[in-house]
Write the C-alpha cells for this entry.
Amino acid sequence: MENDSFELDNYQADHELQTFYEDYSTTFNYTLDSIDLQIPENSIKKKSRGRKVRPENVVNILQCFFKNSKAPKKEYIRCKIIRGQKRAIRHALNNKIPTTTLHKVNHLNPNEIQAWNNFVLDIIKNSDTFIKISKTENGPKTDGAAKRKNKEHFVSSKIQKTFNDHFCKGYFFNPLVLENYKLYIDVIFALNEPENLVKRFDFSCCRSRNISHFPDCYIKWENLKQYLKVGMIEDLGITKSSLSNAMNQEISECEFFAEDLLEQ
C-alpha cells in the first residue's frame, strides 16, 4: 500500500495535478497526499471463504432485492455498473474523486480511499486505453447519442442498441477493462454496510423502515458482489482460458506482421 501511495504521489508531482472531492455542487480542496492512507489493523477485512456464485443463481440473487416491489433485472444491473465504471474512469482521468454517484468515496474512510487509489493507479498505467473506453459514444446506441450525430462510424449498424450480451461480452473481453472493472467493484463495496449499498444501488434488500438491517442483508449484498465480480462475467462466457487464447492470438498476429515487414 505504501508503494501505491508513493507511486501516485510521484505521478501527481510530475504532472502537477490536484485531486478534488467533487459532489457537482461543492468542491473540496483535499489532496491524496494530505490524507493518511494507512488502514488500521482492525479495519482490514478477511477474505470471504464462501462459495463463488454460479451464473445460474443470478435470478435468485436479484430476487432478494427490490425497488417499487419489483426485483432489478440483469440488464439494469449491467447498464448501471458499466456506465458507472466508465464514469469513474473519467473522474480518475480528470483527477477527481466524487462524493456522489454509485462509486462515491468518503475521504474519511481509509478503506474507500485505498480502493479508489488502486482503481486510479490502474488507469494511470493504461491511460491511453481507458481514455478511449470511457467515452460515452463508445457504448451502445442508448449512450452518447448527441455525440454520434453526423458521424457515420458512430451510427453504424454494427453498434449494439443496448447493453445486451453481445455488447457486454465485447466490453469485458478486453483484459485491461476486466481487471479494472474488478477494482471498480472493490470501490463500490469498500464499505460493505447494507444501508450504504442501498443508497448506492437505489434498491432495497429488506423492508426495514429504518437504517437497521437484518443479518441476512449482509449475505445478500455479499452474494451480489460475488455475482458482479465472477458470476456476471462467467454468464457472458468469458473465462481465463478464452482471454488467454485471445491474447495469444493477438501476439501471434503481431509477430506475423513483424516478420512480414522484415522480409520486405
